[in-house]
Amino acid sequence: MFAIFLTPAYLPFAIAFVVMIGIGLIEAIGLGLGHLDLDGDVGADGHGGVLDWLGLGGELPILIWLTSLLGCFTLAGVAIQQLAESLRGAPLGGPAASGVALVVGLLLNTLAANGLARIMPGFETSVISSDDLLRQRATVLEGVARRGAPARAKIVDRHGQAHVILIEPHDDADAIPAGATVLIVRRDGARFFALASEDTFLQPL
Predict the structure, then answer these.
(1) In CATH, which of 3.90.550.10, 3.40.190.10, 1.10.1760.20, 2.40.50.140 is domain 130-199?
(2) Who's near 98: CB < 8 A, 6+ residues apart?
(3) 46-61 pLDDT tens trace
(4) pTM score > 0.85 for this model?
């Protein structure tokens, strides 16, 4: 039975299955590689559009989504090849079967990913939105941050994980040197704007 997975017609699905198992092990070990902030500016109206449709618009870790997709692709591929064998006496070619299985797998994974997102509301993860970095302290790593000339700064989120972001002064005339501690007050896309600590009595929330 398992020998058929080594034939060219089934090989793409065998590879997908092995990769799925590998990713599952990475997640099980807890390396945290599945955490990805997809909050971003994916839609001007506040919706993720295609990402939402694919099941990636929420906080489902990317590796869990990918594991689900590989599983759906594998199941769809095997089913397609078995159906082809029963109807025409031989499986489809690997590329043709893979193309059909990818389409079917994406459709199945949309349902699976959205289902997983609904049944995992209490999933504890270090995934954060970029907006969660607002009202937090950061330290300028190098260079001088000026309006139009951002500098790299390090910020530690509520989970204790460090992030390197680009900052500019909130006020046009300010310049923030390396080593300064700043308060992040707003962002525009991937760029954050900050006030030097000595310029404000605001405290991080």
Answers:
(1) 2.40.50.140
(2) 12, 13, 77
(3) 444 554 555 555 556 6
(4) no
